[in-house]
Specification:
By secondary structure, this protein is an alpha/beta fold. It folds into two domains: 241 residues, Type I PLP-dependent aspartate aminotransferase-like (Major domain) (Aspartate Aminotransferase, domain 2, 3-Layer(aba) Sandwich), CATH 3.40.640.10; 138 residues, Aspartate Aminotransferase, domain 1 (Alpha-Beta Complex), CATH 3.90.1150.10. It is built from 14 helices and twelve strands. Helix 2 packs parallel to helix 9, helix 10 packs parallel to helix 14 and helix 12 crosses helix 14. It starts with 7 loop residues before the first helix and ends in a 6-residue tail after the last helix. The relative contact order is 0.12. Bound molecules: pyridoxal-5'-phosphate. Pyridoxal-5'-phosphate binds next to helix 3. The site of pyridoxal-5'-phosphate has 14 residues, from helix 3.
């Protein structure tokens, strides 16, 4: 059963796994079995061993494939497991063109692991199509996009970059963690592989680590399925169930959090102690038009740079509502310090070069009333200004 005529919000609830066909239960059963009894010597049943296939994990894989408008989904033990397994589509001697402000873990995988297997890379500013083209080599086999990027929220024109990849016979990978299929569907823009840290918005409650990959092309699906089974970094069944539970509320969570992010970005822009606000929803964001053209919204993550490191320190020590932590995409707002958290794996000079300074904060807006977050930030900014004898208003 496919429900391609229904809207995204409806499909989150009414998909092929809305109830268990054996009992009618309205929640996907958790199948703990690692192995499955076979009734025939010559032909095995659909499942034999849970690394290769498990009905609970498969339900999540079916659901994410449908939500991303793909044909097959794959669930992994983390976002990095999904990303690393997708990189196994490449071979020694291949070359990757990759977003320069990519997630820190992806940066580490590409620079310190893949290089040992003779897979080379070139970092580029993906917003500059000429530099993407210039970075392509005869052995380029993949172009890796993260949009909006982390933590500077630069927006890549997905279709334009996927077209470049197609022309040179390279695969295009898109990390869709920040926007999710609720707002952006890279496969429909020409991407070959969509990747997710399902730890973030998809599950949404800071209580599970998981990764997903989705493809449209059946041959690519075969190859990725074989790699998932070979590498073996599959998602456990309890965690698969938690991601499915979270997915049901994805639309309402994204909508509320995005509205909050818009309001907070506008507020921060007016604050004299805030040097810069990075959010693709702002009309003066350099790629605002591209964002509007390829996604239904700008998402719920924004970054901002405070006037100085002193202000930054007293602000972080004073704010009360957001948790100060790594990660994003949860019911509670999360304030992170990219320089020391998500991008700690990146050498300091590389970070500074990319604009990830020591006064930069990333905010993932949760489900609080945004006016309370603004009240909290306002109090922290006033206190920080007073502490450093800076006039605010
Ligand atoms: C968190 C994150 C990852 C890594 O996912 P894990 O689930 O932590 O392994 C990859 N990409 C982006 C954009 C992320 O935010």
């Amino acid at each position: 059963m496919t429900n391609h005529d229904f809207s995204f919000e409806t499909k989150l609830l009414h998909n092929q796994h809305k109830f268990d066909p054996t009992t009618g239960g309205v929640s996907v059963p958790i199948q703990h079995a690692s192995t499955f009894h076979q009734t025939d010597i010559d032909t095995f049943g659909k499942y034999d061993y849970s690394r290769s296939g498990n009905p609970t994990r498969e339900a999540l894989e079916d659901i994410i494939a449908e939500l991303e408008d793909g044909t097959r989904g794959f669930a992994f033990s983390s976002g990095m497991a999904a990303i690393s397994t997708a990189f196994l589509l490449l071979s020694a001697g291949d070359h990757i063109v990759i977003s320069e402000d990519v997630y820190g873990g992806t940066f580490r995988m590409v620079t310190s692991v893949l290089t040992r297997f003779n897979i080379e890379h070139t970092f580029v500013d993906m917003t500059d199509l000429e530099s993407v083209k210039a970075a392509v080599q005869p052995n380029t086999r993949a172009i890796y996009i993260e949009t909006p990027s982390n933590p500077l929220l630069k927006v890549t024109d997905i279709k334009a970059v996927c077209d470049i990849a197609k022309k040179v016979g390279a695969l295009s990978f898109v990390d869709n963690t920040f926007l999710t299929p609720a707002l952006q569907k890279p496969l429909n823009l020409g991407a070959d592989v969509v990747l997710h840290s399902a730890t973030k918005f998809l599950s949404g409650h800071s209580d599970v680590v998981a990764g997903l990959a989705v493809v449209k092309d059946p041959e690519l699906a075969e190859r990725l399925g074989s790699l998932q089974n070979s590498f073996g970094a599959v998602l456990g069944v309890q965690d698969a169930w938690l991601v499915m539970r979270g997915l049901k509320t994805l639309s309402v969570r994204m909508e509320h959090s995005q509205k909050g992010a818009e309001k907070i970005a506008d507020y921060l822009k007016q604050q004299p102690l805030v040097k810069k606000v990075y959010y693709p929803g702002l009309t003066d964001h350099p790629q605002h038009a591209i964002q509007e053209g390829q996604a239904l919204g700008a998402g719920a993550v924004l970054s901002f740079e405070l006037e100085s490191e002193e202000i930054f320190r007293s602000f972080v020590n004073t704010v009360e509502l957001p948790v100060f932590a790594v990660s994003l995409g949860a019911v509670e707002s999360i304030l992170s310090y990219p320089a020391k958290m998500s991008h700690a794996a990146m050498p300091a000079d590389e970070r500074e070069k990319r604009g990830i300074t020591n006064s930069l904060l990333r905010l993932s807006v949760g489900l609080e009333n945004p006016d309370d977050l603004i009240k909290d930030f306002d109090a922290a900014l006033i206190k920080s200004a007073k502490a450093h004898a800076i006039p605010v208003k």
